[in-house]
């Protein structure tokens, strides 16, 4: 990227001149983050994926989600909110769109199981978030789309024609995919009876640790209404190592222990929560499949990222489906 765009961004937002060359600090699946050292301090500039932003209404969804971060921070949640300049959260320079926030020095933990003490702290913060009476009528409600056999057929045939690595494995799992979709739809009817406003992507990649007891929560673009037990179960899985292998029950339980100690309550059925996560995973699988087929991408690298992410998501879905009843029992133990 031409750094002149970042220089203009700094001037537009009153940050003064850059004091050093901007550096890319992370390149996620969808967006990248720049570290800016300016005359007014250090900032993180998240460059939003242009192709993703073309989706109708997404820019407004981002604005509303960032307002959730502001509300959370105002209530004492360690949320890193986006700075607003002249009343606007999204900053557009040279057809690129950025979110600016204060730079937080610290570390991101790897995706494996964390220490139980940190897991308990994350559970405690999640309970505090769920306790806040934030309105969600204008927020993007978590969708539960029905994934029809025709859609899977079409995409797997297209993927096979292009020689994409996920095409045959997904097609071989078609009966299971339809079963998982049915389970998630049935669970959604019950889970949607109880919703809270929350982060909706509280995994280790979105928490910066200033030290072992001081986390800062970033990346609020997905914030919105979600069933609290479903989110709690997903958070417990991600912090206990689910994304890299079998989750550790001790760490999983530490998240739930911290949640309950902080006043959280587990009202909903654990298996419903796990089946809800199956539905969310199916949505991500389709999203990554479509990206690897050329949708919502800017270049070939993003297309390859979509292919790799689809393969990984399929692995996680199979693991979730296989162990759902066991992991649901871990939730029920604390209910």
TrEMBL record:
Residues 26-250 form the Aminoglycoside phosphotransferase domain. Gene3D superfamilies: 3.90.1200.10. SUPFAM superfamilies: Protein kinase-like (PK-like). It holds the Pfam family APH. It comes from the Bacteria. This is Aminoglycoside phosphotransferase domain-containing protein. It comes from Tengunoibacter tsumagoiensis.
């Amino acid at each position: 990227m031409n750094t002149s765009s970042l220089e203009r961004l700094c001037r537009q937002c009153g940050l003064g001149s850059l004091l050093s060359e901007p550096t890319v600090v992370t390149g996620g699946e969808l967006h990248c983050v720049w570290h800016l050292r300016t005359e007014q301090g250090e900032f993180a500039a998240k460059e939003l994926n242009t192709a993703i932003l073309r989706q109708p209404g997404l820019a407004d969804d981002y604005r509303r989600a960032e307002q959730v971060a502001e509300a959370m921070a105002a209530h004492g949640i360690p949320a890193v909110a986006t700075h607003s300049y002249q009343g606007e959260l999204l900053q557009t320079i040279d057809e690129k769109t950025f979110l600016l926030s204060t730079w937080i020095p610290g570390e991101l933990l790897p995706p494996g199981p964390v220490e139980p003490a940190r897991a308990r702290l994350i559970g405690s913060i999640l309970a505090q978030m769920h306790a806040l009476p934030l309105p969600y009528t204008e927020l993007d409600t978590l969708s539960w789309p029905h994934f029809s056999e025709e859609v899977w057929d079409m995409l797997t045939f297209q993927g096979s024609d292009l020689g994409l690595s996920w095409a045959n494995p997904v097609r071989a799992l078609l009966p299971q995919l339809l079963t998982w979709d049915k389970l998630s739809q049935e669970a959604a009817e019950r889970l949607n009876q109880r919703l809270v406003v929350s982060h909706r992507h509280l995994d280790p990649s979105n928490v910066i640790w200033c030290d072992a007891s001081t986390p800062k929560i970033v990346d609020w673009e997905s914030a919105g209404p979600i069933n609290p037990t479903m989110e709690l179960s997903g958070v417990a899985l991600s912090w206990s190592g689910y994304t890299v292998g079998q989750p550790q029950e001790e760490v999983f339980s530490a998240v739930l222990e911290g949640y309950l100690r902080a006043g959280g309550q587990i009202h909903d059925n654990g298996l419903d929560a796990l089946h809800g996560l199956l539905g969310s995973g199916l949505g991500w699988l389709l999203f990554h499949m479509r990206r690897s087929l050329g949708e919502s991408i800017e270049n070939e690298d993003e297309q390859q990222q979509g292919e790799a992410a689809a393969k990984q998501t399929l692995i996680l879905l199979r693991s979730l489906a296989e162990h759902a009843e066991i992991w649901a029992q871990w939730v029920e133990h604390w209910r």
